[in-house]
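We treat protein structure as text, and this decision shapes the records that our systems exchange. Such a record has a labelled line for the sequence and another for the backbone structure tokens. The record that follows is passed on verbatim for readers who wish to inspect the format:
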Amino acid sequence: MPTDGPRNFNDVLPQGGFSGIFKTMGLPTELKVSYFIWVISGLLGLLFGLIGLFAIIAAFAFMPGVAALLLVLLIISLAVAAAQIVLAMKMKEGKEWARLALTVLAAVSLLLAIFGSINAGGPGAGLGGNWFGFLVSAVAVVLMWLPNSQLWFKAVKGAV
């Protein structure tokens, strides 16, 4: 288990804010690729969530009950996408707890893909059956745990 967990809210925020979101100097190639997979998928999640907001607003005119439920789900998905970006930035700083949290997010996406497939009756069907999303996050997770990445995390931990 990681021993470098955050002690307060400021420990969770990226050092220097979001201005360094595209700076990856000093990271091994595996972590750079993994980092950009997490950041780009998080940014896409935010973008598509905002686009979905317009559809939900329109749905309030016809199905207010369903639209309210969809709005709650959208808010949760936007929070997860934003958290994914922040966690990727903390992973880039060498925080093992962020790497573990991103691994948990990938595991949750696997469960959602399985549940969506079972619910909809076939692979890739339904809202939760996002196998492509899981495979992309699985690649990012594998890259975070490769030996070269492990060595980098150990070196950062020893330097702090």
